[in-house]
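User: Round two. Same drill as before: sequence, then structure, for each protein.

Assistant: Same drill it is. First protein:
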Amino acid sequence: MSQFIESIKVEDQEIFLLELHQKRVNQTFSNFGKEDSIDLSKIYKNLQHDEDGLFKLRVSYDLDKRIRTQMIPYAIPEIHDFQLVENNSFDYSFKFEDRKELDKMKMKSKAEEIIIVKNNHITDTSFSNLLFLKGKEWFTPTTYLLNGVQRQQLLKQKKIKEAEITLQNIKQFSHFQLINALNDFDDMFIYPIDRIINLPGNEEYLDL
């Protein structure tokens, strides 16, 4: 049975973007022919979490509604370098718990984190969506692997725009940042584009 996960931000006992997380869970059940879903709000309330600070609520579940929960203290990571990794066949359209393929790509790379390139287009890192800065505007690739909840929220709020970002035009952007349910648009570390060690013109890509 396929296992799926949701990683949800909980800060000072407040849960964030719950509606978008619930929508994604519902879509996962529906896509695999199941009418009923799990109730994330009820799962959180039953935990009776009463600690302040930043936590990741990790909910693992399967289509038979078996769930496991973990409440993990969280700190936003600073990453020293990134590498573009080519993989034209990788599919992560649902938030699967199995990350073997992602781990394999990371192990073969020479950097701390990877940016996955699919059919010449920039997609995501191994754990986040991406934003790229041009002038004063932030853009997110139209070619994401997973349409993350933070990405959806920022587009809805019109704080970011979508753009086709490819190996050919990536150097037109000056900086980038990582976003996911735990990493907010405002709080994130912002990296200069040359933090990517194999930008076009630097060296060959890692082709997996």
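Second protein:
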Amino acid sequence: MRKLTYFIACSIDGFIGDPSGDGSAMMAFVDEEYLAFLKDEYPETLPTHGRRALGLDDLENKGFDTIIQGRGSYDLALKEGITSPYAHLREYVASRTLTESPDPNVEIIGDDLVGKVRELKAEDGALGIYLCGGAQVAGELRDEIDELVIKTYPIVYGTGMPMFGSGLAVTEFTFDGVRTFGNGVVVRTYSRKR
């Protein structure tokens, strides 16, 4: 069974972006040390256009071969004219409003997101599924998430988009480890307690 990993950036106060979902303020903390960590440990989480700009096109996927993201996350790329932001992965976008994909590499999941994720998790393969965001998709998939990788940036939004956009549902995870960086970023990893 393949794992679904919610690999997400958030502020100290647990928001993945401002009230509109914009998390660009966190990009200021991507320095050489932190980028080297992402490149070595989670290379597939770097968008294809970012990899190209950094001369990292040849990076092999280590943990994921598939990505699921919500419409809001996908729209960030579309606004830049990028229709396949993770071309090095199988790309799925969960959206009830986007009926046709603007790119042949991107499949739209319009309904039964949980069913589709269960189908993807049941596939053969050693690599997992990267849940990129956003809050609504993570809330809908809360029971399917096997691992959390939370990149906490040293900023406070005060208000904004939470990590999980759903009602109260206590879900337990086991702490696996933490990594700290000189720029103040902390990366914590948790496994689903089943």
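Residues 45 and 127 are 13 Å apart (CA to CA).

User: Perfect.
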